[in-house]
From TrEMBL:
Organism in which the protein naturally occurs: Ornithinimicrobium avium
A single MF term (Gene Ontology): DNA binding
Keyword field: DNA-binding
UniProt keyword DNA-binding, yes or no: yes
Protein name per its UniProtKB record: AbrB/MazE/SpoVT family DNA-binding domain-containing protein
One Pfam family per UniProt: MazE_antitoxin
UniProt domain SpoVT-AbrB: residue ranges: 3-48
């Protein structure tokens, strides 16, 4: 993910490249913590838990949470956590 460019529009909004959004599982409405780092800044996504589990026909199902994208890595981590 190194070397990607982002742009700042007239309203001060930063456009994050699609490749970065996809790799990080960032969807609409995700909020960021902004940290000033010397001559730059660091954007850290504030993720609400995407692990809302409901039961459907006796099976646990991960329910969609608005503004949070559940990635394959999330599901694998939850499966691994459940096996410990």
């Amino acid at each position: 993910m190194d070397g990607m460019l982002a742009s700042l529009d007239k309203a001060g909004r930063v456009v994050i490249p699609k490749e970065a959004r996809d790799q990080l599982g960032l969807g609409p409405e995700v909020q960021f913590e902004v940290t000033l780092t010397g001559d730059g800044l660091l954007l850290t996504p504030l993720r609400r838990s995407a692990r809302r589990i409901v039961e459907v026909d006796g099976w646990p199902v991960i329910e969609a949470v608005p503004g949070v994208t559940t990635t394959d890595a999330d599901v694998q981590r939850w499966r691994d956590d459940g096996q410990r």
